[in-house]
Amino acid sequence: MVLAKSKKSVGLGNSLMNDRFGKGKGSDRKRASAVTRIDHATGQEYITNDRQEASWVKMRSITEQGALDEFLATAELAGTDFTAEKMSSVKIIHTDQKNPYLLSAAEERVIVGKQNQNKGKLTVPRRPKWDSTTTREQLDRLEKEAFLDWRRGLAELEETKDLLMTPFERNLEVWRQLWRVIERSDVVVQIVDARNPLMFRSEDLENYVKEVDPKKHNLLLINKADMMTYRQRKMWADYLKGQKIAYRFFSAHLAKEALEAVEEESESEEEPTVASSSKKPVAEVKEETREEEEEEAEEAETQEEQEDEDTRILTVDELEDILLELEPANTDPGHKFTVGLVGYPNVGKSSTINALVGANKVSVSSTPGKTKHFQTIHLSEKVLLCDCPGLVFPNFANTKAELVCNGVLPIDQLREYTGPSTLVATRIPKPFLEAIYGIQIYTRPLEEGGNGIPTGEELLRAYARHRGFMTQGLGQPDASRAARYVLKDYVAGKLLYCNPPPDSVDGAEFNRELYDIAHLPEKRRAALQQALDEMTIDGSAADDASVLTDFIPLPQGQKSQTLDKAFFKSGANNTGNFTRPFQYKYTEQGKQVMEGKNLSGRKLRAMIALEKGIDPKDVQMTTGKKHYKGSMKGRGKHRRNNADDDEP
Ligand SMILES: Nc1nc2c(ncn2[C@@H]2O[C@H](COP(=O)(O)OP(=O)(O)OP(=O)(O)O)[C@@H](O)[C@H]2O)c(=O)[nH]1
């Protein structure tokens, strides 16, 4: 559902009319902000925006602009007044002509192919060359011209190649911060989110760093690695090594926890310890011994993971050592080794700095785009950290929904929420969503056009009903409000999905382990187990189970078995299925269903796809009506509302 256009947004025509005939205070403000200035270098007059703006306004990150703002900004950058500048040389860079929703698997393949062909054209703007003879005004003009050229180039790429771009940073002031950070830094650490490392990586930024000075170093720091399993890190490590990318895994979150643990330990050491003298029953002692043995076995395996240089999550000390190794030799005695931290908003730059500094020197927030100016923090007498404001580099985007899910676009300002919520509903298995939230999601049956996977709206309605979020008036489930919660959970990693490296396994297979019941918090694990038991008793789980058969291992090759063994402590049984309860149960159920129909999930999907003329990847197994009735049993405890609009 597309929401009505905001009353605040104006087209170029409307804006010109408002400016001309006036529309209350707003237009007065607008008129007052355009002032005539004299260029002292040339003596010419020009029109520009009033600079008496608060500094936060100037530094505000701009990733999307209305038609008039785009026009005015372009005109200001070009340094020409509106009559002198011909419209033909102004390009509207951002348009909403593209479908903001999701792509089918086939469309996505076409788009990805096109994106790969044009990858080299995704550049970051370069700061023009300058020397001691360049005046401030001249440099300002040169920078604006270079920036305008860069924007034209990207606009052309979008127009001629018909590619959707990320709403990349359009504020020159923000790029100026990046230029300064790069110029000052000996090492530029590009921080990316582990859930989608390539989406957050700007390859051209690394080129630019080397252009500024070949002696500078680049490092790709994959933060939030705590969200990945060992197997996932291993697959990414193989890919990144193959591409010869200097990378390291890190987790500011784990680093913070380790720091707190050390602090607690040192505090408790100061307190007197109380010795436990009570005698324990034999059964309890046996249980403890068994647990200890299990722990030891687990430790041995974790040890193996830890020793794997390529996949290990660095501690703060290790990260510091790696950075110090890159310190240039023979620098001036007064030179401070400077490490610049750059990256998209919300990838964890401030958290990483806090972990390095060992204290909360930089504020951390889950709202993207909080850091506005670059900040310098003295790590030691010789080492300086430089925190650059988060900025969105130009990149190809498949959809805006993807950007929301990646935490690039702020959720609170979101108007179109169905795309991103559908991505969440597609990526996180339905039973997992139901267990996490304690909800029941009703999907449309196949015969009525459903595909077994909930749509974003189906998920949101279920969530809204459960939380009692209702719209005023008609009293329908407030999907828009629900979207904010669900999407924030996704961005925060509560609903976890990691992207696989290119040309490897598909997303479902890559994330299979994440939906293992053993990964759930204790309370949710019990809820899920109960839900599964209920479904098994009334025999209605069959179709539901098939949703998860996509996350169940098929007979594997030697390499993936070795990889999996490292993760699954109990190993695989002789059927090729794993013995963890969550997967085992689903595997068994899935098998029964498929045997009954004499078709495997894949074959059935392929058949449905053929019948419907769609891509097999877009087809999932369905839930039948019988299932709704069945699984409603034992669900009475969930809050229900008379306004349910989607119950069959
Ligand atoms: N799970 C996990 N979450 C993290 C990690 N590092 C940061 N976060 C979370 O990610 C969010 C953003 O962290 P920040 O450090 O503020 O990110 P930033 O890159 O400085 O953001 P801007 O100031 O907007 O540029 C916060 O909610 C953090 O708690 C990590 O290693 N693991």
TrEMBL record:
<keyword id="KW-0963">Cytoplasm</keyword>
<feature type="region of interest" description="Disordered">
    <location>
        <begin position="261"/>
        <end position="313"/>
    </location>
</feature>
<dbReference type="Pfam" id="PF01926">
    <property type="entry name" value="MMR_HSR1"/>
</dbReference>
<dbReference type="InterPro" id="IPR043358">
    <property type="entry name" value="GNL1-like"/>
</dbReference>
<dbReference type="InterPro" id="IPR030378">
    <property type="entry name" value="G_CP_dom"/>
</dbReference>
<keyword id="KW-0342">GTP-binding</keyword>
<keyword id="KW-0547">Nucleotide-binding</keyword>
<feature type="domain" description="CP-type G">
    <location>
        <begin position="175"/>
        <end position="394"/>
    </location>
</feature>
<dbReference type="InterPro" id="IPR027417">
    <property type="entry name" value="P-loop_NTPase"/>
</dbReference>
<feature type="compositionally biased region" description="Basic residues">
    <location>
        <begin position="624"/>
        <end position="640"/>
    </location>
</feature>
<feature type="compositionally biased region" description="Acidic residues">
    <location>
        <begin position="261"/>
        <end position="272"/>
    </location>
</feature>
<feature type="compositionally biased region" description="Acidic residues">
    <location>
        <begin position="290"/>
        <end position="310"/>
    </location>
</feature>
<keyword id="KW-0378">Hydrolase</keyword>
<protein>
    <recommendedName>
        <fullName>CP-type G domain-containing protein</fullName>
    </recommendedName>
</protein>
<dbReference type="InterPro" id="IPR023179">
    <property type="entry name" value="GTP-bd_ortho_bundle_sf"/>
</dbReference>
<feature type="region of interest" description="Disordered">
    <location>
        <begin position="617"/>
        <end position="648"/>
    </location>
</feature>
<dbReference type="InterPro" id="IPR006073">
    <property type="entry name" value="GTP-bd"/>
</dbReference>
